Inverse folding.
């Protein structure tokens, strides 16, 4: 039934983009610069809009205007309520066959609900959450985890490829979100786990740099030990070696672990470590010393060493 | 003070080996075959002794005889009480300068205690626990994590190199054990974490093989996802694809997590995830369905799917 | 604004009751027998309706009919979706001033949403979840935790008093549910905690009956130790002494812990023990041996003793 | 064999007391004043000794002197190593039949080891840890949990009764300690659980005083909710209403949870909630804001409210 939709769309037509924040801004910029697309953009922040406009994009007055003029629309929004609100506006003007690519990280159940609402208007919704931070968004090297109809995957890729290096088809709509929150739950567990481990070793007289080297050559190896080590000085280029500034914030990790917990409770899946990782990051989030730091500051939290100055 | 010891020892002299079990047997065999060493061995199991004897080793009647004749002695024993018992016998006959290399996995505090007792007799104790299973022991590709005086490290390597591929100097005596239990605690956390994660994804409609592929290319990557995946069929050569038979048993993982917990309690180090991993493996260990299976059966435990037949 | 509503209602008028299950059935019966009320009832199960009818209640054909004829309506339904569905029907016919007393255990956020929908129709919604099981429902000795406008509390009590022994005013609408899920989270924590404790003591050689007696006279005392002890034989009249049959089921406890987890995640409240209690009951719920047993079977789950026959 | 021992002892003979700290001091004082006993005391702190001496006790120069002159000796020491050290001295001079009553809180395994050493000298060791703080020690209303031979229980009571209100016979030697650490593990779980619960309710709009009242009348009731409530102002006479000063310190609770964890690991008993309670109190203990406060400050820790002034 939806098979014919992609053929309706004009590959050379306008592409819409809603949500020009820290991530969305550079993503939209890549569509303009690398994709040479005719972009119609919207954001509540005028400054963000002006930046894109000066690069060649056109500014829309409201989301509904974007949907009225574009048959491919990318959205990049902070959370589920924003997505619900924006799409209720978009769907008032969207033409049948319009392809919506939502790059926000939201509850998979909300993604499925959006897909149903879109289907009622004979439009297509695909969830395409990203992996990679502001740096990858700027460089156009994000990874996209995409859920939605397989016969629209090529159409999705034709837009996403200008913003990222990899596109992972995951399955039905919502599974892009599932992949994202599952990866991030595992990331939270690994980071907290390696922080506990390196702190334990340190208290028992084993240098964290030496222990990291051993673990990286052994079965405890993980991305959080070999690429994003949480102990200051072990890897020079990551946030832990820069006062835990920048990177992926503790509050964002807490948000993603909350989404994982919600999905696990709803699907009756046991997640003993995911739950405790969630609770521990919850405590860090409510502590002003860690709330706005990189999530690898779990090491500083557990070690109780003075790794973060009090005035920060 | 101990500096001169290694020069006393005869590089061509007899080497002792005590503990010829599943791991110790093939390790001793490599000293005979690859190392071409004159080996004096002891074990309570006569069959194990005969096997080594037929390969060229000499059998000792008791541990004290081994210490009386050898200035380098390797021990590979099941747990702390065995180590305490064997060394109380060894030290009755050991000559000053004897080098003891203990490859058992034991409490770091017991290793330090042994080192003190050895020092009273002017002998050297180094803890050298191994990473890698029976296969690596047979192939001579184990990794050794070694704690003890740095000026004896070369002497230790001259024996260990015939049994393993890597030797990691860790620091003072006991830190070899610390490295071992820290790595294995992280391993237990990773394995339980990835099991939770892949089960959660599966219940939400995402194929574990697809999710594993995504995680392996992203920040949730770990040895338990990319090398030893716990979901049957994702990697064909690991225990999960063979009914969780073989590999590293649930009860052994539980033992190591118990050592980590003891060390953490004694050193007042917080290990929230390590504690819950310990408790979860504890529950698996008391369930006959999981107790003798590979530790990756955590996936079967959490998913409650019929991955392990009831009769097993 | 709502102040005048209670005066509109006729104290002698018909009272509606929707949901005549294990709990709702005996509750409605008490309104008829003890309250001598003229009851209009609805349930999808005809047998349940007949039972009430033979006691003097009138049967309605659908929920909307109940709301059309009654200005006081009690609802007792299994979960949030049922409540949402029934009220969407009730509100099509309800007159302004109608008082809805919802005794279901649901998400506090859903209770607040229902209250808003009711307010749009100028009717009153109060959440009145109960404490106590089928026995207390039959005896009319339930406790009600009530959230809603304080000037309607007397009107609520005039109905609830025939079904229960205590009415606790909690605050704004939704706080009745908050009280219920908070109490039950604490109950789940206590029960699991005392089960761990008595099992640990038992393994260390201390008779659970003796330990229970000591704890009951000391600072570890709780309802789960002194009134509902989970070890068979310590208290003869509770489910643990009857093969863990009857009582408050493991799956119901898991549901309530899931509601507590959802509320904690949404309100960003740390609940480390509540999360682990949730995860442990989650595992019990997916095990056929424990799923339909009383929640005190946590002791049997942890002790791994053969307290529940395999055939059960 | 030991049956005749109690008859050897002189009920009117000297009684020894070693360890005159915060708890031991007032306990010894009660033996002098209420028990009218002829007391021979020892402590490393001269001031503590002087206080007892001025009340009528005699000072000994060393522990061995106490054992040489008394056939009943009470010990009250900080931890296992102190106990091991003091008894190694006491046993050099103790006469056969001497009754040792150790009121310290230590590892049950150490109590059993002490009993064996005492038996070798044909003396009796009973473990008698106490419940109740400095107030109860002064008032003579402690509870004693006593492990050891049942035919010595009367002899033990004849001393303990002047220091406490209750004596609970628990079973074989070591079970007194088991009862103590089991009760305190349950206490730690209850306190942390009720703190989570009241904080969750508070964030959801339910007054902690109201919620406490409801829980105290329902199935979530526990000593930590109805007698020692952790929310300031709910009960005026407990530490939470006095800036969490006094009471039972966070570090002491952490010590007891560590003993429970050690005993659980050694006996292979699962304690999921006990482990997380231990880890959470571990984190509190390493935070200067909570380390020296009453253990009910778990509420302040979780709520992140400014319940404890920064300067404290």
């Amino acid at each position: 039934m939806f098979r014919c939709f992609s053929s309706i769309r004009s590959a050379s037509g306008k592409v819409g983009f809603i949500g020009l924040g820290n991530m969305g801004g550079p993503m939209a910029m890549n569509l303009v610069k690398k994709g040479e697309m005719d972009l119609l953009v919207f954001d509540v922040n005028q400054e963000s809009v002006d930046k894109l406009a000066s690069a060649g994009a056109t500014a829309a007055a409201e989301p509904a205007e974007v949907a009225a003029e574009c048959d491919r629309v990318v959205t990049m929004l902070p959370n589920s309520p924003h997505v619900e609100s924006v799409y209720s506006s978009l769907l008032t003007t969207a033409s049948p066959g319009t392809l919506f690519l939502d790059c926000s990280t939201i509850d998979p159940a909300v993604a499925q609900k959006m897909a149903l609402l879109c289907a009622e208007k004979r439009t297509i919704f695909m969830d395409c959450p990203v992996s990679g931070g502001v740096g990858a968004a700027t460089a156009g090297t994000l990874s996209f985890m995409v859920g939605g109809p397989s016969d629209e995957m090529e159409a999705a890729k034709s837009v996403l490829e200008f913003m990222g290096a990899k596109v992972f088809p995951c399955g039905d709509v919502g599974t892009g979100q599932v992949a994202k929150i599952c990866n991030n739950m595992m990331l939270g567990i690994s980071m907290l786990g390696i922080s506990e481990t390196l702190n334990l070793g340190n208290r028992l007289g084993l240098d964290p740099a030496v222990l990291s080297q051993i673990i990286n050559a052994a079965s405890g190896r993980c991305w959080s030990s070999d690429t994003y080590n949480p102990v200051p000085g072990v890897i020079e280029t990551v946030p832990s070696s820069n006062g835990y500034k920048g990177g992926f914030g503790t509050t964002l990790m807490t948000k993603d672990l909350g989404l994982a917990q919600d999905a696990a409770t709803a699907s009756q899946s046991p997640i003993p470590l995911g739950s405790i990782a969630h609770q521990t990051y919850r405590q860090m989030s409510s502590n002003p010393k860690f709330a706005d730091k990189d999530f690898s500051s779990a090491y500083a939290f557990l070690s109780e060493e003075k790794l973060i100055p009090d005035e920060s």
User: Anything to note?
Assistant: The first helix of chain B runs from residue 5 to 8. Chain B touches chain C at residues 272, 276, 283, 286-287, 302, 304 (CB under 8 Å). Residues 235 and 310 of chain B are 24 Å apart (CA to CA).
